[in-house]
């Protein structure tokens, strides 16, 4: 049986690497599958919300912004891919290409979410990319033929990985994890009052790491999340219409009426962000 012989024939260092990578990727898929908010628009853990936050400081922001239009589909793909790569690695089905898939995912995550981590060795995505690349190069250099032979046995083996990935995602939905209570934090400075004129808007990143937009009127200040409640794209203020508009699917929100959705494929208002004036600064409370 290839599963048993594959473990038996590998050196212990490779067994440790293989076990760690396979289990970690399965857990990553499970973490997403068991998160009720991962595919729920408007949730703080929604994949679209995460992509919006990543795009603020990522060198591939142009790709992330384009992907927001299909955030839910991308979330499903990533979740199933993590399950598939993890299972394929552990049970030795197309292990070389599973390792390459793990490397590609790690590099993408590094560029998207942990590019600015300093010093660089604190970025776990980069460390995983090196592990997957090392494992891939070893397997690629030592293989005699492709593990993706298109025959009856090969088809069944590949199909079994897909079935395990789908099953893992389905079981994860049956056991949703509990939401963690938000950690209290003190006020965060956004902009000086003297630098922010009445009638203007100011884009900033909220405590949750998502984009937000600040407004100032004669009566005070208020702010909303800039993450569209449809598919997680980032909304922008249109000074002509005085509305917040989503460039992906055309949703329009009224900032003067509680962020209410006026038109578009959603009827959910934009979430409010608590802000206040403290001394010389406007802060997020």
Automatic annotation (TrEMBL):
<dbReference type="InterPro" id="IPR017941">
    <property type="entry name" value="Rieske_2Fe-2S"/>
</dbReference>
<keyword id="KW-0812">Transmembrane</keyword>
<protein>
    <submittedName>
        <fullName>Unannotated protein</fullName>
    </submittedName>
</protein>
<dbReference type="GO" id="GO:0046872">
    <property type="term" value="F:metal ion binding"/>
</dbReference>
<feature type="transmembrane region" description="Helical">
    <location>
        <begin position="154"/>
        <end position="175"/>
    </location>
</feature>
<keyword id="KW-0411">Iron-sulfur</keyword>
<keyword id="KW-0408">Iron</keyword>
<keyword id="KW-1133">Transmembrane helix</keyword>
<dbReference type="Pfam" id="PF04173">
    <property type="entry name" value="DoxD"/>
</dbReference>
<dbReference type="InterPro" id="IPR036922">
    <property type="entry name" value="Rieske_2Fe-2S_sf"/>
</dbReference>
<feature type="domain" description="Rieske">
    <location>
        <begin position="188"/>
        <end position="284"/>
    </location>
</feature>
<dbReference type="GO" id="GO:0051537">
    <property type="term" value="F:2 iron, 2 sulfur cluster binding"/>
</dbReference>
<keyword id="KW-0472">Membrane</keyword>
<keyword id="KW-0479">Metal-binding</keyword>
<dbReference type="Pfam" id="PF00355">
    <property type="entry name" value="Rieske"/>
</dbReference>
<keyword id="KW-0001">2Fe-2S</keyword>
<dbReference type="InterPro" id="IPR007301">
    <property type="entry name" value="DoxD"/>
</dbReference>
<feature type="transmembrane region" description="Helical">
    <location>
        <begin position="120"/>
        <end position="142"/>
    </location>
</feature>
<feature type="transmembrane region" description="Helical">
    <location>
        <begin position="76"/>
        <end position="100"/>
    </location>
</feature>
């Amino acid at each position: 049986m290839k599963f048993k012989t594959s473990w038996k024939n590998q050196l212990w260092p490779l067994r440790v690497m293989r076990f760690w990578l396979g289990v970690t990727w399965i857990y990553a898929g499970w973490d997403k599958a068991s998160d009720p908010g991962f595919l729920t628009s408007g949730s703080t853990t929604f994949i679209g919300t995460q992509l919006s936050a990543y795009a603020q400081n990522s060198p591939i922001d142009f790709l992330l912004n384009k992907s927001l239009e299909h955030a839910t589909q991308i979330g499903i793909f990533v979740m199933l891919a993590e399950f598939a790569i993890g299972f394929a690695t552990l049970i030795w089905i197309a292990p070389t290409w599973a390792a390459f898939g793990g490397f590609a995912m790690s590099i993408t995550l590094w560029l998207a979410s942990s590019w600015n981590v300093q010093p660089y060795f604190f970025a776990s995505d980069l460390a995983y990319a090196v592990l997957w690349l090392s494992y891939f190069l070893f397997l690629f250099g030592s293989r005699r033929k492709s593990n993706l032979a298109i025959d009856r046995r090969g088809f069944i083996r590949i199909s079994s990985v897909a079935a395990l990935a789908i099953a893992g995602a389905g079981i994860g939905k049956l056991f949703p994890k509990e939401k963690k209570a938000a950690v209290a934090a003190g006020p965060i400075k956004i902009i000086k009052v003297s630098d922010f004129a009445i009638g203007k808007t100011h884009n900033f990143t909220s405590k949750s790491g998502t984009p937000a937009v600040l407004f100032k009127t004669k009566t005070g200040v208020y702010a909303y999340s800039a993450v569209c409640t449809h598919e997680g794209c980032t909304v922008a203020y249109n000074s002509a219409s005085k509305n917040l508009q989503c460039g992906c699917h055309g949703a329009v929100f009224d900032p003067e009426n509680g962020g209410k959705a006026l038109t578009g494929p959603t009827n959910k208002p934009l979430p409010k962000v608590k802000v206040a004036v403290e001394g010389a600064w406007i802060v997020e409370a």
